[in-house]
Specification:
Layout: E1 29-33, H1 35-43, E2 49-53, H2 61-64, H3 77-81, E3 87-91, H4 97-105, E4 109-113, H5 122-132, H6 136-154, E5 164-168, E6 176-178, H7 183-190, E7 203-204, H8 208-214, E8 218-222, H9 223-229, H10 232-236, H11 245-249, E9 252-255, H12 257-261, H13 267-282
Parallel strand pairs: 1-2, 1-3, 3-4, 5-8, 8-9
Antiparallel strand pairs: 5-6, 6-7
Helix pairs in contact: 5-6, 6-13
Length: 292
């Protein structure tokens, strides 16, 4: 059977204006650390002058095009200071902590958004970023919309009983499967899918025997992960994949990992897209109906 794939398109979020410089902040330079924070700034149309970002900021494209100061968790004070920032707006897991303290010591205003990596925290994260960028009204409106979207997810009818698996693949590394305690597990549950490997914790390599035993009906991967693994043909050739219903039917959903798993403002809508596409694969004889 030919493979079935769904690629998630970009959501309709207001993206323009965050690089414009407002009168009250005309000479203030901002560095953004964290893909979810960058997406929130864009969604709020925040009127601040962002001059650099970290490697996890890959959306929107205009933000990704800015100079990078390094990887979010392995920053250096020298790299951040090289772009002469007045403000650093960082996700809670940015670090190391001593680097942020060094920035503060030399007069850089460092603000951290201490929101946990949960769906329920997304609206609070939006409000926090809105407060720091003087977009309180826009932040409240966006936070309410996101809350309503997440609430509607919980009201959807159950999907057919069909365990799914999320495969994480980075270039040069062995593919790993998501267990509980991961962003992927949270996304699967929120979309109404059961995680075939939910009894394990974190990301792990799994054997062909484990794949056959868990018998996932559906494989979910990011576009970047699929490229890193060598494409769809290489995916179905992984040891044990042919022993699974997903492998035999070649049921694959391709997702935007930053949009779905970044716990930013695009995540709630992406969960609906995951739900719709999963239902279309698992119920191929009828058109999936998801009330929006």
């Amino acid at each position: 059977m030919s493979a079935t794939r769904f690629a998630f398109g970009a959501m309709g979020i207001l993206l323009v204006g965050w690089l414009a410089t407002g009168a009250a902040q005309a000479n203030e330079r901002w560095v953004v650390l964290g893909g979810d924070i960058a997406e929130t700034i864009a969604a709020l149309n925040a009127d601040i002058d962002v001059v650099a970002r970290d490697d996890t900021v890959v959306y929107p494209p205009e933000m990704e095009a800015l100079p990078s100061v390094g990887y979010l968790r392995q920053l250096s004070a020298e790299s951040v200071l090289s772009v002469s920032p007045d403000h650093v707006l960082a996700a809670s897991h940015a670090g190391p902590q001593e680097v942020l303290e060094q920035l503060t010591a030399v007069g850089v205003d460092v603000e951290r958004i201490d929101a946990p990596a949960t769906l329920e925290a997304i609206p609070a994260k939006v409000r926090a970023v809105a407060q720091l960028t003087d977009r309180q009204q826009e932040g409240e409106s966006l936070a309410q919309t996101l809350t309503e979207t997440l609430e509607r997810l919980t009201e959807l009818p159950p999907l057919p009983e069909a365990p799914a698996m999320f495969i994480l693949q980075n270039s040069g590394l062995t593919p790993r499967v998501a267990g509980s305690g991961t962003a992927a597990h949270t996304a699967l549950e929120a979309a109404g899918l059961s995680n075939a490997f939910g009894t394990m914790t974190g990301y792990h390599s799994v054997s062909a025997e484990a794949l056959a035993e868990k018998a996932p009906e559906l494989v979910i991967m990011s576009e970047r992960g699929l490229v890193a693994i060598g494409g769809e043909a290489a995916l179905w050739q992984l040891p044990g994949m042919a022993l699974t219903p997903a492998g035999r039917q070649q049921r694959l959903l391709v997702i935007d990992d930053q949009a779905l798993l970044g716990f930013g403002p695009r995540t709630p809508d992406q969960l609906f897209t995951l739900r719709q596409n999963a239902e279309a694969l698992l119920r191929p004889t009828k058109t999936a109906q998801v009330s929006r």
